[in-house]
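re the bet — no i am not wrong, look at it urself. input seq straight from the record:
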Amino acid sequence: MAAITIASLSKSYGGRHVQMAALQDLDLTIRDNQFITLLGPSGCGKTTTLRCIAGYVTPDVGTIHVDDRLLSSPSGVVSPEARGMGMVFQNYAVWPHKTVHENIAFGLKLRKLSSAQVRDKVEQALVLVNLKGLEGRYPNELSGGQQQRVALARSLVVEPDILLLDEPLSNLDAKLREKMRGELKQLQRRTGITFIYVTHDQAEALALSDQIAVMHGGRLQQFGTPFEVYNKPANRVVADFMGLVNLVPGRILGKAGDQVEVEADGGFRLAVASPTALAAGEPIDIAIRPENIALAAGPGALCGVVADQVFLGNICEYSVTLPGGRGLRVQTHPLQQFAVGETVSITIDPGQCSLFPRDPEADALAAAA
């Protein structure tokens, strides 16, 4: 059992005169037996966080505990090999001159287990990652997905309490990556090990995770379930990063019960529930997912003109121009077809919209993504 508590963790890099903050004041509590994803663009701090958890980086400020054991603080870190963690790297890091069996057995031999124990544990690991029968092959005789399974088996065979995975699927093609996602999730469920997974791929994070830590600019932006971070983003940065979103500028008109009435720059009004206190006249951004907009042929209360259409197989994606020139991205069922140049009526589901105060710093972060 291994619960991780990260408190006030910060790390900067650079020389004496120029310091760049890679991680700032991170607080995160990870329960045992969870699949947790650290998600964000390049330079957001996710890999620095993983390396701090692994023991490869000493924090400038803050601590990392696993259960009640202090593993990292500015005064020192417990070495990676003494942490009871396994790590799977982006480039697999399997030894080309060793067979599958020898790669998986390496950590067990360092622990000086008997030959019989090594053989039994390697066989169990081969079954766990669906490599039974391939133990005599060398890495150059394996596919990319099989090499990734070797790296997983080598980490799992030593029975870690926590498994750290640094973008392990990024070198695989799209179809194999999707297959390996399913296998990873099943593997975590079967073993009960805490998985901490680093990726920049939103779809990967949504498909795999019990909870997602969305990071940006070295700071934690939101920590929640996939449903929460997608449908109830904590701020504009999260809304903009998690999939496609229309961010429409507008202003608050007033409060109506538990909702606020907003006027968008695109020439429409909505009554939206908002957990944040917003004053009349305050400038805001309205976050509207493309799938929460419905189109119909002909004029309506809110109309637009189809400027572009892209068929993506399972959906059609439209660019619709509103009066005044503002565009909206809209996703529909693939059998619902509209022609470029056609006038369509637009219906926006206000219950699925989010409101965010206009924030110059958030604007800058989102623009840099």
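see?? The radius of gyration is 24 Å. told u. also The first helix runs from residue 46 to 54. so pay up
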